[in-house]
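Quick one:
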Amino acid sequence: MTPAAKTSPSLAALREELGALDAELIQLLRRRVQLARHIGAEKRAAGLAMLDPRREAQVVAAAARLARRPVARKARATRHTSPRVDGPVAVLGLGLIGGSLARDLAADGTEVWGFDTDESATRHAHRAGVIARVIDRELRAARDARVIVLAVPVDVAPALLEQARPFIQRGALITDVGSTKRRIVQAAAALDLGTQFVGSHPMAGDHRAGWLASRRGLFAGARVDLCGSPDASTSAWRRVRALWRSLGAKPVARDATMHDAELAFSSHLPQILSLALAGTLSSRAIARDRLGNGGKEMTRTAASSLDMWAAIYEDNAGPVLDALETCLAQLGGLRRAVEHRDRRALAEAFAAAKAWAG
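Output:
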């Protein structure tokens, strides 16, 4: 018998990368099974046929086309009109947003370094070839990064920025991805980093969280609000716009205080309403699979991350309370219309809603 060949380091690395991809595929397949079950329930409720021959034929044809392609063929890289980001980029936090950002940048050829308190996230990201360097908890390894992205909950970001402050080189771009902007912009200015910092809020996300929920293409076509202090340099603004445009996003400059006030209505209030609706249905033992498409969409975000949303509500409590009071006034009016069978009031409410929806 010939002696067993030793496994080369490169082969071991490829196997580790394959293992990480397998784990991601399993998560995607689980999600597909869940969706298929929901579709089946909807079809049964509507009395529709469980199998769609045309859909089956399309899937089989697509699978056949993929099978005919050579395995070694490289996928065509997505082309962006914007210049490639000048790395290394240190992504501090490899959850849904940070992980997706790291994946897109790495796929575009930018060197990415990563940090996360969850060591399994950095391990998966490194094995998948997304991050070239793992940054330790002291953050010293971020010293030579050209761009630093804070991708952590908004209550953690200011302290993380302060911890990283001694290792941030002059001229490095600093940004974040949090849903509130006023506090982090003030924190950067207080640390004498106002010229280098422009905060970001990508309007993209998911109710799922963590590295395994991250994916390429999450920011394509998404609006990204950019908020900086009056001291933010022209270079910082130019580079942060280039960063998001390289990912296919649409950056828009905003005042931080106005951003937080608007997001209390447009993002933070809908999340609270989703929680309230889920709690109401649960109190009457109504399962989610009993809902129609509208109900399911309204409660989708109820399963979002507690850590992320609790931090947002603490940080933006004033504007969120204003949004809640405004909404409660609307609900009170609708309650009175239902109680008094006031069709005219309901008609006015529906007309106003339709005019808003366009």
